[in-house]
Amino acid sequence: MSLRIAVVTAGLSNPSSTRLLADQLAASAVSALADVGASAELDVVELRPLAHALADRLLTGFPTGDLSTAIAKVVTADALIVVSPIFSASYSGLFKMFFDVLEPEALAGVPVVLAATAGSARHSLVLEHAMRPLFSYLKTTPTPTAVFAASEDFGDTDGGALTVRIERAARELAALVSGVGGRATPRGRSLEEQFADPTPFAELLGRT
Questions:
Q1: Which fold has domain 2-206?
Q2: With left for phi above 0 and alpha for psi between -120 and 50, is residue 48 left, alpha or beta?
Q3: Which residues of the chain have pLDDT under 50?
Q4: How far apart are the C-alpha atoms of 90 and 84, rounded to whole Å?
Q5: Which residue, among 92, 57, 3, has the nearest Cα to 82 in the 3D structure?
Q6: pLDDT tens across 137-190, in order?
Q7: So what's the pLDDT on residue 207?
């Protein structure tokens, strides 16, 4: 079984601890999937270069260029890994903007690992009081384990607390994806797909 994992990272610096955590999660997810007999292709979506395009999308209603490509990678993926830096006790505005421009139901049923970075461990609850509600609203299927990394966590050697959390989340993602062969439920069709191939009126009547 071959799967596609989209890795969405909202780090603002280069190099970025947010991207570092995303890469560690992605590598662990690929390994965990291999353990259950599945291969995985990674699509990394860096949001920093898309900031202007995201603002234009919110104003015009139409994605263009690299943003269109990024959206397509995310909404067609079998699973997601999403990582945001923490600002003012929540995910970043750039992170939220990206998920705001997706079509309703676009991520319904998609398994997702939630992750965040910050300078202090006191921000770790953001994963539960901000990120998990957002992705529940988007109707995704988050893994039970979310991964938070403070600055000092990156000094962990193999077997440290951060490594343990990363590997646990990766195993949970592999179990979710391999258990259903991809998405937990079919995704909703985009507006473009609906216009290109409209549902027959008789079929619509049959659903009522």
A1: Rossmann fold (3.40.50)
A2: alpha
A3: 180-182, 184-191, 194-195, 203-208
A4: 9
A5: 92
A6: 999 999 999 999 998 887 765 668 899 999 999 999 999 998 744 454 444 444
A7: 44
Over the range 149-182, which residues count as b (16 or more CB within 10 Å of their CB) and which as e? bbeebeeeeeeeebeebbbbbbbbbbebbbeeeb
Q: Using an 8 Å Cβ cutoff, are 64 and 56 in contact? A: yes
At 187 the pLDDT is: 46
Give the separation between CA 94 and CA 191, rounded to whole angstroms.
24
Give the span between the Cα atoms of 179 and 79, in whole angstroms: 12
Identify whether the C-beta of residue 80 lies closer than 8 Å to the C-beta of residue 8: yes
Structure tokens at 159: 């077997």
Write down the pTM of the prediction.
Answer: 0.84
Return left, alpha or beta for 78; rule: phi > 0 is left, psi -120 to 50 is alpha, else beta: alpha
Question: Kind of pairing, strands 141-142 and 90-91?
Answer: unpaired
Q: What whole-number distance in Å separates Cα of residue 133 and Cα of residue 127?
A: 9
- Whole-angstrom distance, CA of residue 126 vs CA of residue 117: 10
